[in-house]
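Posting this for the archive.
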Amino acid sequence: MIEVFKTIDKFENIVTTLLEEEGFWVRHKFKVSVSLEEKKQIGKQSAPKPEIDMLAFNLRTNEVLALDVKAYLDSPGAKLSLLQEEHEVPTGRFKLFTSERYRNLVLARLLQDLIALGMANAETKVRLGMIAGKVNQGQSEAIRAHMQQHDWLFWSPEDVKAKVAARNQVKS
């Protein structure tokens, strides 16, 4: 089990390095301060504070990526069918992707939190995204198409491998 955690951390470290080399500043495990009243509005008053796996800030474009970053080593990987679900009340693994009301609330509150911390401004664009270390049964392109329909970022395992290979080519 400890070996799995080391590998998951390694994947997140690789993603961090790739994002930083593309001009992003990265912050891990950011808790969004959703109030009890806001939790009631989405039907989840007892839910813990939402946590974003990774935030990536690009100062040039004034964009913050709110990223779900998962190696998915202990599962079949990201599944298109789960990402396509729609829920009024946030449920399941991909709540930010499958519940529009929850997503809008969390991302708006995230921007407010970042502004309060001096890490963003009113013009900062917040964009949702996923970086997956494993995708179920070759669904990468179908997931990419789904994500593009919503203007969400998606890096498939193949994208991550290609970025690492390109990075290693430059270093050689």
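The radius of gyration is 16 Å. The longest strand covers residues 24-31.
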